[in-house]
Fold this sequence. Notes:
Elements: H1 4-17, E1 30-34, H2 50-56, E2 64-66, E3 72-74, E4 77-82, E5 88-93, H3 107-121, H4 123-129, E6 132-139, E7 142-147, H5 168-171, E8 191-197, E9 201-206, E10 220-224, H6 229-237, E11 243-244, H7 254-258, E12 263-266, E13 275-281, H8 291-300, H9 303-310, H10 340-350, E14 357-360, H11 366-381, E15 386-388, H12 393-401, E16 407-413, H13 418-421, H14 446-457, H15 461-478, E17 481-486, E18 491-494, E19 497-498, E20 515-516
Helix pairs in contact: 3-4, 8-10, 14-15
Amino acid sequence: xxxxxxxxxxxxxxxxxxxxxxxxxxxxxxxxxxxxxxxxxxxxxxxxxxxxxxxxxxxxxxxxxxxxxxxxxxxxxxxxxxxxxxxxxxxxxxxxxxxxxxxxxxxxxxxxxxxxxxxxxxxxxxxxxxxxxxxxxxxxxxxxxxxxxxxxxxxxxxxxxxxxxxxxxxxxxxxxxxxxxxxxxxxxxxxxxxxxxxxxxxxxxxxxxxxxxxxxxxxxxxxxxxxxxxxxxxxxxxxxxxxxxxxxxxxxxxxxxxxxxxxxxxxxxxxxxxxxxxxxxxxxxxxxxxxxxxxxxxxxxxxxxxxxxxxxxxxxxxxxxxxxxxxxxxxxxxxxxxxxxxxxxxxxxxxxxxxxxxxxxxxxxxxxxxxxxxxxxxxxxxxxxxxxxxxxxxxxxxxxxxxxxxxxxxxxxxxxxxxxxxxxxxxxxxxxxxxxxxxxxxxxxxxxxxxxxxxxxxxxxxxxxxxxxxxxxxxxxxxxxxxxxxxxxxxxxxxxxxxxxxxxxxxxxxxxxxxxxx
Length: 518
């Protein structure tokens, strides 16, 4: 039986997709939408927060984009080919592409972006970079990637948020994090940065020199920053806003909003990311360093309650580290059901002595705050002395990057293959201060490292599956992090906003194809 929210979305989606007639897009107009929370910055690759990805996906691009079936499509690369041995990939770049400052986009930008910028800053990209032996600009519009060995998911690695193309002429020889261009980002995308009135609005304007003729259709996008959840819902109800991206309004407001006239809703556009909510648990020190404590946390949490009540039936309770959309999931594992008695037994076994444990909620709105409160209650019921410490987004990033936490809510993207989106959380080689998106928990297991590294390049798939099944068994026992929910994210929008979601990356892929039927 569907919960009210799941049923409302199903009904709205059905209503919004009946009698669809191909229409001629219209140029002009501006979309008013909301970004929640305010992003800490807009430079993709340097920052991996979801709000950054959503806004900056209009400014920056990657070599490829992906369909809802995860099939690669041209973006800055118009074609590609691979050698017979699977080790050399050649990308042929579009000609006539310029950066927003008018400088040409060339193969040198690709080499710099991948081999310098992302190697230094981007833990997501490192999962791919570790398999790359060299990157060479063959000529102005041709780039050659040579792999140390064939790497199965290589071609689904080039989405803009993971392998952002950044301008070499702007960043080379500078302190990347302190570059003035970070305040006025320059990409190749369909929209250009115009203005950021902190705490109020981020304004993007049409890139008149965009390389795809006739695109974008819109004149601009206004990303409004409205801290209060109720006010965000009201802004849509009173007609001020056209689009509510995922996570913009609280789940308890969605059933009411989806019943409004001229309102459509879709859960499409997250196929590439497969968002996965987790509970970071610091493996380095304190009670959370004991796997019995971490197992107790898993048994103590009522994840079905979180899904059914806090998320109104959206999403799935994961079995372990691999979500149900991930390739090679081991579905033979015993689930961590809600079992407070088992949690108490494990705490007694380890000799837990009421030591305080600090829990950081994810500062993304009331739903996440309520979720932290529910988990806090679950843990207190089994005898864990847990306190919550609220932060803003910047503070949350800082605390996680400095490993200054005991437990913390987060969600990460699992992408289309375990070698891309899952291994980065558990590989010991991905432990590095300063980022909240790598192996933040500090988990180290030599066998897990071996299995992940071997599986990334194994062939055929049957061999990969055997390796990934073993790694899941180990992770299931060790519980380096808590596995909360595979998230369901609806996007709500006026039905006269057309072609809003046209890829497996959804609104994070930008509003290039969107137009207003007004």
